[in-house]
Design a protein that fits this description.
This protein is an alpha/beta fold and 516 residues long. The chain has 21 helices and 15 strands.
C-alpha cells in the first residue's frame, strides 16, 4: 500500500470516552483537523466541552496559552454521522473492547472512507488480526494503542496483525512520533508488549501472598525500594482488582492457558467479595477516609557488630557494596572473589544473596547457619530489603542477621523462606517474559525497554536489568524456582537460555555487573 505521510492529515476519532477524547486532543494539538464521533447522541459535543474546561484550567496555570487552547478546540469538530468523515485519511477507533463491535464499525467505515485511508484500532487486548478479518483491505488496519491518560502518557504501541501492511505500520509509527509520543512496533500477540511483560509484577506478589510468605505492606515496600513507583498491591488497588484480574484472565486464555499467566485465587477472592481497591473503598488496603495504611518499620541505622573473621564472597555490584561498607567502617575482611555465592561470611555464619533457592535448601545441603537476602537494586541507604533464615539456623544467628543487614545499610524485613524472595524473583520473571517476547518476534529489545519504562513507569527496562545482571545468573535463579515449584511457571525462555549459553563470548562484554 502506497501512502503519503499522515502528518497534518484530517482524521476521525470514533468513541468520545476518556481514551477517544484524549486522542482527539493530542491530534488537534499537533495541528490535525479532527472529527469526533460517538454513537451516543451528544456525547462528542459533551467530550469537547469537557476538554475545553480542562484546557482552560491548564491555561490558567500558565501551561498553555489562550491561543493554543482556542486553536486546539477549533480543530475538533463533533459530527452527527460517520458519513461526514468521508474525506479523512486516518480513522482511530476507541470504542468498547468487543471484537464484534469493532469489526462491524470498521466494515462500515470501509464503505465511507477512501481506499488510501488508514484504519487504526486503540484496542488494548483484542487481536488486530482478528479485527481485520472480513475487511476488504485488511492491510490498512493497524493497532495504535495509547495509554491513559493519553495527553500525558508518551507510549504508543503500534501493533501489526498478520495482514497489516508494513508501510501502514511505519506511517502510524512516524505519526505518533510527530505527536510527541514514543512509538514502539509490536506484533499482534496476547497482551502486545506492556500487558504481557507486566504480568509477573502482579503474579509474583500474588503467589507470595497465597503462600502467606509476607504481608502486602512488606511486599510493596521492598519493590518500591527497588525503584518501582508503586508496589504491586498498591497498584492493583489503584487499577481495580476486577480490571486487573480480567486482563490476566484474558492473557491466560489467549495463551491457551499457559500456566505462566495463570490468574490468582487471592485476587479472584477479592473480586468475588467486591473488594476491588480504591473504587470500592477496600482491596489489599483500607481506602476509607481516615484509614491508616500499614507500613514497614522505619530504618534504624546501627554500627557493625563485633566479629572475629569477615569474608566477602563473590564478585559484582553486591560484593563491591559490602566490601566498600566494611572498608568505610575500618573493618578488615578477606575477599573470596572465586566463591560460588555472593555475600558476607561472619565467623562461619553466612549472609547470602538469594540465588533462587530457599535458605533452608542451602541449609540442608551446605551450611546450617545461613540467611538469604534479596536483590538490593536501590543504592540508597535504609531501603527496605527482605531476608529469610534457614530452618536449620540457630536462634542466635537469626537474631544477629538483621542487625548485620541494618549495619550494612539495609532496612531488613523478615519474610517466610520463599525461594527468590521478592525483588529477585519478580525482576527475573520480568526479564524472562521480555526475553520470550523478543525471542518470539513480538518486539525488539529497545521496544521492550521503552514500553515498560514509559507504559508502566518501570525504573529500568527488562533488558537494562539483564545487561546489569547477566543471563546466566538470571536463568540459574529461574531454574532454582522451577525446581522448587515443579511447574511450568518458571521455565526459562529459550531466548534467555541461549544468552546464558553464550555467556563466555557475550556476557564478558555485554554484562555491566552493576546489578549483582
Amino acid at each position: 500500500m502506497t501512502l503519503k505521510p499522515l502528518q497534518g492529515a484530517p482524521l476521525l476519532v470514533v468513541g468520545a470516552g476518556i481514551m477517544g477524547a484524549g486522542i482527539a486532543q493530542v491530534a488537534a494539538q499537533a495541528g490535525h483537523a479532527v472529527m469526533l464521533f460517538d454513537l451516543r447522541e451528544g456525547a462528542a459535543a459533551q467530550a469537547k466541552a469537557q476538554l475545553a474546561g480542562s484546557l482552560d484550567a491548564l491555561a490558567a496555570k500558565g501551561k498553555l496559552s489562550a491561543q493554543d487552547v482556542a486553536g486546539t478546540l477549533e480543530r475538533i469538530e463533533p459530527i452527527p454521522s460517520l458519513d461526514a468523515a468521508a474525506s479523512v485519511r486516518l480513522v482511530v477507533e476507541a470504542v468498547v473492547e468487543k471484537l464484534d463491535v469493532k469489526r462491524s464499525l470498521l466494515r462500515q467505515l470501509e464503505g465511507i472512507v477512501g481506499g488510501d485511508c488508514v484504519l487504526a484500532t486503540n484496542t488494548s487486548s483484542i487481536s488486530v488480526t482478528a479485527i481485520a478479518n472480513g475487511l476488504r483491505q485488511p492491510g490498512r488496519l493497524v493497532g495504535m494503542h495509547f495509554f491513559n491518560p493519553v495527553p500525558l502518557m508518551r507510549l504508543v504501541e503500534v501493533v501489526s496483525g498478520l495482514r497489516t501492511d508494513a508501510a501502514v505500520a511505519q506511517a502510524v509509527h512516524s505519526l505518533a512520533g510527530s505527536w510527541g509520543k514514543v512509538a514502539v512496533h509490536a506484533r499482534s500477540t496476547p497482551g502486545f508488549i506492556v500487558n504481557r511483560i507486566a504480568r509477573p509484577y502482579y503474579a509474583e506478589t500474588l503467589a507470595l501472598l497465597q503462600e502467606r510468605s509476607a504481608e502486602p505492606a512488606l511486599l510493596d515496600a521492598c519493590l518500591r525500594a527497588a525503584g518501582f513507583r508503586m508496589g504491586p498491591c498498591e497498584l492493583m488497588d489503584l487499577i481495580g482488582h476486577d480490571t486487573n484480574f480480567a486482563v490476566t484472565q484474558s492473557v491466560f486464555e489467549a495463551n491457551f492457558f499457559d500456566k505462566r499467566f495463570a490468574p490468582s485465587l487471592v485476587q479472584r477472592e477479592l473480586v468475588d467479595g467486591g473488594l476491588l481497591g480504591r473504587k470500592s473503598g477496600r482491596g489489599f488496603y483500607d481506602h476509607a477516609p481516615g484509614a491508616v495504611k500499614p507500613s514497614v518499620p522505619a530504618f534504624e541505622p546501627m554500627e557493625l557488630p563485633a566479629a572475629t573473621l569477615l569474608s566477602v564472597h563473590g564478585q559484582g555490584a553486591v560484593a563491591r557494596r559490602l566490601s566498600d561498607t566494611l572498608a568505610a567502617a575500618g573493618r578488615g575482611f578477606e575477599p573470596v572473589p572465586d566463591s560460588d555465592w555472593v555475600g558476607l561470611e561472619i565467623d562461619g555464619a553466612q549472609l547470602r544473596l538469594t540465588d533462587g533457592r530457599a535458605a533452608s535448601q542451602v541449609g540442608a545441603g551446605e551450611v546450617a547457619e545461613v540467611v538469604v537476602f534479596d536483590l538490593p537494586l536501590s543504592r540508597d541507604g535504609g531501603a527496605a530489603l527482605s531476608w529469610a533464615p534457614a530452618v536449620q539456623a540457630g536462634a542466635a544467628w537469626v537474631e544477629a542477621a538483621p542487625r548485620w543487614l541494618r549495619a550494612l545499610g539495609f532496612n531488613a524485613q523478615r519474610m517466610a523462606d520463599a525461594p527468590g524472595l521478592v525483588v529477585a524473583r519478580t525482576v527475573a520473571m520480568l526479564i524472562n517474559e521480555a526475553a520470550d517476547a523478543v525471542h518470539q518476534g513480538v518486539c525488539d529489545e529497545a521496544g521492550a525497554d521503552a514500553a515498560m519504562k514509559l507504559g508502566v513507569n518501570y525504573p529500568q527496562g527488562p533488558f537494562e536489568w539483564l545487561h546489569g545482571w547477566g543471563a546466566a545468573p538470571v536463568a540459574a535463579l529461574l531454574d532454582a524456582l522451577d525446581a522448587h515449584y515443579r511447574g511450568e511457571r518458571y521455565r526459562v525462555s529459550p531466548g534467555l537460555r541461549m544468552r546464558a549459553w553464550q555467556r563466555g563470548m557475550v556476557e564478558s562484554q555485554d554484562c555491566k555487573g552493576d546489578v549483582v
